[in-house]
Amino acid sequence: MLATRRVLVVDDEEGMRATLAANLELEGYEVVEARDGAHALALARQQRFELVLSDVKMPGLNGVETFRELKRIQPGLTVVLMTAFAIEKLIEEGIGEGAYAVVYKPFSMEHLVRIVARALESRPVLVVDDLPDVAEMIVAGLRAAGLRAEAAYDGYTAIQRARDEAVDVCVLDLVMPALDGVKTYEELRRMSKQIRVIAMTGHARSEMIHAFTSRGGYACLHKPFDVRELMHAIARARSDPGSC
Questions:
Q1: H or E element: which one contains 6?
Q2: Is 203's pLDDT higher than 60?
Q3: CB-count burial class (<10 Å; 0-12, 13-18, 19+) for 190
Q4: Cα R_g (the chain), whole angstroms
Q5: Which of 66, 17, 13 has its CA nearest to residue 43?
Q6: Angle, to 10 degrees, between the axis of helix 132-144 and the axis of helix 227-239?
Q7: Are 188 and 158 in contact (CB under 8 A)?
Q8: Angle between helical axes of 227-239 and 88-96 (0-180°, round to 10)
Q9: C-alpha angle 114/117/123, rounded to 5°?
Q10: What is the rounded CA–CA span in Å between residue 157 and residue 79?
Q11: How far apart, in whole angstroms, are the C-alpha atoms of residue 236 and residue 224?
Q12: Is 112 exposed, middle or buried, given 0-12, 13-18 or 19+ CB atoms closer than 10 A?
């Protein structure tokens, strides 16, 4: 139950920290506050947390360094990063090491609360490609970075998986036999407007890519791509207000 879910809020600005804590407590979460990274690590050694919400720019340990150490203390911990600054190198490091999402200040509390709720649901990234080796390679890369990911090898299986188990983000090959990526995407969106879909392709026609994006598809990556590029697209999709 929500009341048993403990969230750690890490921010050196006392006013922001108190506002975040108050809003999360109204949603039924148990909230613990940390004034900086060192304080957060000390708390993590004393008690378990389901999620950490941490500012990136802080004195002493920054948010990404804190995130890195927290994951050593509590492997599998879900972390959402917040920032008011365009600190691209730090943000890239955080995403590459498995941060669930990066939220840019100022943000609405309603938006943040929705991201926290989604993050705590631990829904997987579903990778769909008719070439099993490709799908499994992508899944392995995402899992190595700490993301929960599963594979499907055709559109029909992807749709059934989404029916049986809620999917957070779907990474979908556009060119597949039987049911192509555009048709699979349309069915996924009919099932749930909350599923964010990222297309990938090595040789899709431009009209197919246009059909996907014009129907609301989030992004299209061209193969071959680095897993970190995909992780950035996933983090952006999770952070986008339209994905919540």
A1: strand 6-10
A2: yes
A3: exposed
A4: 18
A5: 66
A6: 70
A7: yes
A8: 100
A9: 115
A10: 30
A11: 20
A12: buried
Residue 1 pLDDT exceeds 50: no
Q: Which domains does the chain have, with CATH numbers?
A: 2-120 (3.40.50.2300), 125-243 (3.40.50.2300)
What does the block give as tokens for 136?
């499994």
pTM of structure: 0.86
Strands of the sheet containing 30-34, edge to edge, are 30-34, 6-10, 51-55, 78-83, 101-104
Q: In whole angstroms, how far apart are CA 35 and each of 12, 38, 43, 55, 161? A: 5, 8, 11, 10, 41
* Average pLDDT score, the chain: 90
As a residue count, the chain comes to: 244
Tens-digit pLDDT profile for residues 124-144: 999 999 999 999 999 999 999
Contact predicate 185/217, CB 8 Å = yes
Q: Summarize pLDDT for 63-90 with one digit per residue, the tens.
A: 999 999 999 999 889 999 998 876 778 8
